[in-house]
Structure formats: C-alpha cells, structure tokens
Amino acid sequence: MRFGRAAAPKSVKSGRQGAPRGWRHRILGVGAAALALPIAAGLASPTVATAAPAHAPVLRAPAGGYEELMVPSQMGPIKVQVQWASRGGNAALYMLDGLRARDDRNAWSFETNAMDQFKNDNITLVMPVGGQSSFYADWYAPSNTNGQKTTYKWESFLTNELPNFLAGYGVSKNNNAVIGLSMGGSAALALAAYHRDQFKFAGSYSGYLNISAPGMREAIRIAMLDAGRYNVDSMAAPWSPQWLRMDPFVFAPQLKGLPMYISAASGLPGQFDRPNSPVGLFNTGNAMALEALSLVNTRAFQVRLGSLGIPAFFDFPAAGTHSWKYWEGQLWNSRKGILDATGAW
Q: What is the separation of C-alpha 244 from the centre of its chain, rounded to a whole number of angstroms?
C-alpha cells in the first residue's frame, strides 16, 4: 500500500456496517486490588488505505457509507473505522475506546449500536483502532515491560495526523466532537481541553477524572500491566508535568465554555447485568467495582467544575456497571448535545 497519493476511497461495505451482534464483551478484571480501568475488544476485519496530500483536491466520501482506512502516522499505519456523514456534512465525532482497545476493531462499532444511532445524522463517526493502555496520550518512551518498539503518540495522531488526513475527504479539522469511555473518557476531556480549535464538544462516560487522587496511579499501574503489560512510568513519570497534564481535575479550568456530557453510574447491577455462571459473577463484580471507582472520581470532578463556575451536564444513574450497554445509552443521551455543538442535524 502506498501513502501520500490521492485515491478515490474504496468502500468496504456500502451503507452502515453490519456489526456482529449476539455476544457481549466480557470484562476481565485484574482483581479488586486494581479497581482500575475498562476493557474494550474488537473483531478482525479488512483494511483499506488511501491518502490525500494537502495540495490534492478534496475527495468526496460516500454519503452515509462505511469505510476502513489506514492512516499514516509516526507510530506506523493506524486503522480507522469511519461511517461517513449521511448527507456529506463536514462534522465529525471521534469515538475513543477503553483500556483494552484491540488492534482489529474499535469496540464502539460492535459492542454498541453507535452507527445506527447516527446513521441518519450529518456527522462522520471516526473510530480509531488500537491504543491499548495508551490513554490516547503522547508517551515519552516505549513501554519497557512488554518490549514495545514504538513510542505511543496518540494525541499527535488524533489532533494532527488524523484530522489532516480526513480533511482530504471533506471532514472539517475544527468542527468535531470527542467522546470516550473510562480511559477514553478522561482522554476525551484532555483532547478537548488542549485542542479547543478542533473540538466543540466532549463526553466522558464512566471516566477516571481525578487520576492524581491517592491510590489512583497505582491502580492504573496494575491495570495497565494486566492490559498488555504496559508500564505507566513510560507514559508519564510520577506526578510530573506530563502526568498532571493528563489529569482532568488539574486541567479543568481549560474546559471553560466547552459543552460537556459527563456520566458515571452507581455500580449497582442494572438491567444489563444478568450473570449466570461463576465467570459472569466475577465479571459483574469487577464491573461494579470499576464503576464505583469511576463514580467517586466523577463526583470529585463535578465539585471541581462547580468551584470554578464551569457548567457541564452530569448524569448519575442509580443503577449500572462498567459495561458497554450502559455506555450505549449514555451515547444516545448525549447525541443531541453532539449534534447541536457541531450543527450536524
């Protein structure tokens, strides 16, 4: 495959993607001691690579079509799943995965009905694939506990390389929203805080929004070792400027004026929690603990924003665990805010 040549996009499937259904992703915990971050998975699918240099004519994406692109980056080619805006609009919604993001598919595309939710809206869904344990940040070194060869540079990819690439298909570089769950929730707020020219809306579902609180770094360390044996110290040194830059509680003042939707449930089992095996009981218990930790973080962040006089919409359901079907519902609840902020109705 060659990058840097303008080429008409080749559609993998016409219309919306027929995502696999009928099974639910199982949350594999690291035990109560970790109480850390979520799990996301994917299924294998083919990829297509196209690239349009800045000087090339804009390529028109098929309205409402689904496509898988390979996007050049300093980390190597990154797969991105795309559902194009239904009527060719320029707005985009970036959808970030969880801690166990896999290298074959973004879990929003098959664990939820996200593509169905937006199939008639004039907004492109952008679902980057990969980034396990990355927090979608720019790391300062490769992880030295799993033999990683390339340093994660996800913030650079999502705010420079990817929007520049998508601009070749008529997608705006400054009319975007960004949402994510758990690891992706805190990352969504960070990307929006530091790139206000790009993002007009941010959503965090079950995010960890106070990562410098006592015990949080070690919880994250254990979770990252479990999810790919990544070393948190390769991401950011303890309480260094880089670490603090990632903490929503610290960068909260930079969110002033940004429309936000932020949610975390109680951790009590709800309508989607029906374990019927020992493994199911373990996974549900772990999902309860993870959500309870997210709730504590999110409540603290709510107080922080209140002290700064920064408004945001918060939702705290009385029941719900750290599970995809609950995040599917939160995406639907925030849909109006996303479309309002980007004018993508």
A: 20
